[in-house]
Amino acid sequence: MKDLFGKAIFDFQTNNAPEDIITETSISEEDEMSVAYLFRSYPEMPAIEQKALQLAKGKILDVGSGAGSHALSLQNERHLDVTAIDISPKAIETCLLRGIEKAEVKNILDYEGEKFDTILLLMNGTGIFGKLKNCNEYLAKLKSLLNPEGQILIDSSDIIYMFDEDEDGGKWIPSDNDYYGELEFTISYKGEKEESFDWLYLDYNTLQNAAIANGLKCELISEGSHYDYLAKLSI
Fold first, then answer.
1. Which residues contact 125 (CB under 8 A, 6 or more apart)?
2. How far apart are CA 31 and CA 22, in angstroms?
3. Which residues sit opposite 184 in a β-bridge?
4. Which of 9, 35, 107, 221 is most buried, judged by most C-beta within 10 A?
5. β-strands 146-157, 116-121 pairing
6. What is the Cα–Cα distance from 190 to 119, expressed in whole angstroms?
7. Which residues pair with 193 in a beta bridge?
8. CA 23 to mean position of chain CA atoms
9. pLDDT tens-digit map of 4-13
10. What SS3 string covers the chain?
11. Which residues cross the membrane (predicted)?
């Protein structure tokens, strides 16, 4: 892994001539993403993310923290106990430079020890599951890290809208995948290209079914303006 996402974040933090990140998926063309967006303050966040931060309480684990904007807001504005984790070393280095007190390079599946009152997975939190078949492994792990009254706040989008319709209103979905929300994601930065990785968008009903199968209650908290939603999972 070249850690291009982390490099972009670190370049922005250290004023090292940051450029836009180029993203591409198996069902969409190249798109430019401003690295500055990853450094947004609470007022600049989408309503779904603001709602998640409002609901966050107690001891918090921010999974896939990126540049650490969610963790920073909770730590500095609400004075909560937050641990930020990400698989990107450069992203975590940036979190520490930004003043996040607890940040470490870690895959959630390898995380051990502490339990939490709130686990956050934001900016399409289901993405890290990769494939539909991995949902049980990830949800079981997340559940094992929750305190008895704890909550998992996770967002995603139903991307069925991205597929063409036939005359009867049915959708043309490629048969390569087990589920239409399974994508291959590619990131390019400063002329370098990361190896493609699996990324999962989950519609709410599918997330709810997976949660129930793993002994979790699933509640729809809010819906965004573009097929996105925030869900709360609890034991």
1. 63, 64, 154, 155, 156
2. 6
3. 198
4. 9
5. parallel
6. 33
7. 188
8. 15
9. 999 999 999 9
10. CCCHHHHHHHHHHCCCCCCCEEEEECCEEEEEECHHHHHCCHHHCCHHHHHHHHHCCCEEEEECCCCCHHHHHHHHHCCCEEEEEECCHHHHHHHHHCCCCCEEECCHHHCCCCCEEEEEECCCHHHHHCCHHHHHHHHHHHHHCEEEEEEEEEEEECHHHHCCECCCCCECCCCCCCCCCEEEEEEEECCEECCCEEEECCCHHHHHHHHHHCCCEEEEEEECCCCEEEEEEEC
11. none
Tokens of 104: 């470490």
Token pair belonging to 221? 């908290």
Place of tokens 């934001």: 122
Instruction: Say how many C-beta atoms besides its own lie within 10 A of residue 217's C-beta.
Output: 12
Per the structure block, which two tokens stand in for 55? 């609901």
